[in-house]
Structures are given as C-alpha cells and as structure tokens.
Write a structure and sequence with these properties.
The chain has 364 residues and is α/β, with parallel strands linked by helices. The chain contains 14 helices and 14 strands.
Length: 364
C-alpha cells in the first residue's frame, strides 16, 4: 500500500515540534510500501527523510495563501512518480481541499481526519473570525471523501446523518509505557500543577492563568508549569505567580520529566476532539482536571480519574485543582484509576489505523 499525506505539522520536517509525531510516522512506515508527506510550510525547509519508507516534502510557500497551490503542485509531481492507493489529509479544511483535488485528478481514495471538534461546536466558531469559512470548507470536503477518521465517539455522532460514509473512531496513538515507568525528583515542600500544549487560542490560556491565580491565592508553595507554549513571550504573567512556561522545541523530553513530578495535570481548552495530554497524564498515574470538551468527556470519568469543569470557568477549574491538592490520598487514587482506565481503552492504535487504511483501499 502506498500512501500520500497532506499535513500541517512542521515537526515532520525535523522541526522539533511538541510530541512524538516523527516516531509515529516512522511506525506507520513499517506497515506500508511507501509513505510520502506534503507539509504546508514557509520558505527555508528541505525534504526530510523520516525513515527508509517515509519522506516529507515542504511546500516552501511564500505565503499561507499559496499553501494550497504549492501542495497541489508537489502532489502532482509525486503522483507522476508513484501511483498512491490512498490520500490522507490532516484536517477537512485546506489540506482537505488539496486531497479532494488530487483525488479527482488521479482517481484514488481519500481519508479525511478530524483532529478537532469542528462541527456543531459554537465554542470553536467563536475562537476565530474565519472559522465560519473553514466550516464551509469542511462541508464541501467531507461529501467527497471516501472515509472520515475522528478522535472520539462524540465526534462520530455528529456524522450520523451522512449516508454511505465510512466513519471510524481511532484516537491518536499514545505510547503509554513511556509514562508509566518514569521517576523524577521533585521538591518535597512544593506541589506542582502542570499544563501541556502548544500555543493556540483553543487552549484558552487566559482561563488557565486565572485558575492558577485563584489556586495561588488559597495555597502557598505551589509550582505552576506549562510545557510547550513559551507564554512568557506572549502573555503578561502575574509577577507573584510561581509560573514557568517552556518553549515548544524543548518540550519533548520535558513532558516525560514533568508528568511524574506533577500533582495535577490541567487542560483549559474550549475545544478538543481527543485530549492526548489527559491520557498521558493518567498513564503516569496523575489525576486530571479539564474543561468539558468533547474529547475530555470521553477520557475523564468525572470523579473517577479526574474532574470536568465548564468551559471558560476559571473558578470551577481552580476548585477542582484545590480539592486534589488538599486531598493527596484522593488524588493518588484517581491517578491510579486513570492508569488502569487508559491501559484498558487507549494505547498503541497503530494497527487499527493501518487496518482502516487497508479497508478504505479495498472498498469498491
């Protein structure tokens, strides 16, 4: 099976982004004959060999407005060398439009990913003034796709009216063992609250920082850590808050280090289709507190392995964080519950993903 992906993730160009994106695609390459990836990028990048069977190609576009046209051009060049069995797009927007165009030109199958909770989601529409346009794009792309992959059952239910459309729930693969056997030293006199994620409006860092300030006003000796966003360069951080935010490029090792050192892991997002961070934190035996996004509601059993709070409610987030910090035995119990739950439900979904690809290719 030969696969062409259209992606936004510059980590696939060796750019050191947050997470394990290169390792995941190396693993995909073990199950296919060829995997080529066209990555939307500004100028200055070169082709990147991920493994013997996996290669990525930057668009090197002069502006974002040229991503579509540059990706089509590279896609045509690649198709002229290789007959791909399947095109996969990272999202149903511009990468989706590229996938639709190449599908029509070369008569192949198209799989569109929904890594975000975009449909029937007013919170997502509020995040960006252009999201209504992206929503229209997705409504154009989805009917022309052969299959859709979503991250949660809540997302899948939104596609129930689509007829003759192959829709499957397969979350992003998570290497649970990476977080289960890690030990790190921590300051025994301080407790730590951790957030992991790149900078994005959807993460709602304003609410996160408000929640941290409330917690800080109630308890002393609390360390607040954020991995992946480098917020000190972007936001005004209260001077009295013991807060450190690390940049994206240094995050990969830091995540594995900080999960076991934390007491509570928090997400404040307005929209999440899955919530990989929550799974990783539970795998490390840590309780989680999150806003009640579609993805979080699928991962968190409220009061069992973590707590849910209303979206945008800093006080509710703070209250749950404070409860866990003030009740370490309960926090430990919930962390262990989480470890068991994610082991049963999540983990390495690579085989499911590859089997789905093959199912789409074999569909007549």
């Amino acid at each position: 099976m030969k696969v062409l992906m259209i992606s936004l993730d510059k980590g696939l160009l060796g750019n050191g982004q947050l997470g394990d994106v290169v390792e995941r695609h190396q693993k995909y390459g073990q199950y296919v004959d060829q995997l080529d990836i066209v990555v939307f990028s500004p100028t200055g990048f070169t082709n990147y060999k991920i493994s013997d069977k996996v290669n990525s190609y930057p668009t090197n576009s002069l502006s974002k407005l040229k991503y579509y046209f540059d990706a089509i051009k590279i896609g045509k060049e690649l198709f002229n060398k290789t007959k791909y069995d399947l095109i996969i797009t990272q999202e149903p927007f511009v990468t989706g439009l590229v996938g639709v165009k190449l599908k029509k030109l070369f008569n192949t199958k198209l799989l569109v990913h929904f890594h975000g909770d975009f449909w029937d989601n007013p919170n997502w529409l509020k995040e960006n003034k252009f999201n209504w346009l992206f929503l229209k794009m997705s409504k154009k792309v989805v009917p022309q796709a052969d299959a859709i992959r979503v991250m949660s059952q809540g997302q899948k239910e939104k596609f129930s009216k689509l007829k003759n459309k192959l829709v499957k729930v397969i979350s992003t693969p998570v290497d649970l063992e990476k977080y289960q056997n890690v030990s790190s030293k921590k300051n025994p006199n301080n407790k730590m609250v951790l957030h992991v994620g790149r900078y994005d409006k959807v993460k709602d860092f304003q609410t996160l920082l408000k929640a941290f300030e409330i917690v800080d006003s109630k308890l002393s000796n609390i360390d607040f850590r954020q991995i992946g966003a480098d917020l000190h360069k972007i936001m005004d951080i209260p001077a009295n808050l013991n807060f450190i935010s690390q940049p994206n490029k240094s995050s990969k090792v830091l995540v594995e280090k900080w999960y076991p050192m934390s007491d509570v892991v928090v997400l404040s997002s307005t929209s999440e289709s899955f919530g990989k961070v929550l799974v990783e934190a539970n795998a490390a035996g840590k309780p989680v507190v999150s806003t009640a996004t579609t993805g979080a509601k699928e991962i968190i059993q409220d009061g069992v392995n973590g707590y849910l709070a209303p979206i945008g409610d800093a006080q509710a987030l703070a209250d749950k964080i404070l409860y866990l910090l003030n009740n370490p035995d309960k926090a430990k119990e919930m962390g262990e519950n989480g470890r068991k739950l994610v082991k049963e439900k999540y983990g390495d979904n690579t085989n499911k993903i590859i089997n789905f690809w093959q199912e789409i290719v074999n569909e007549k």
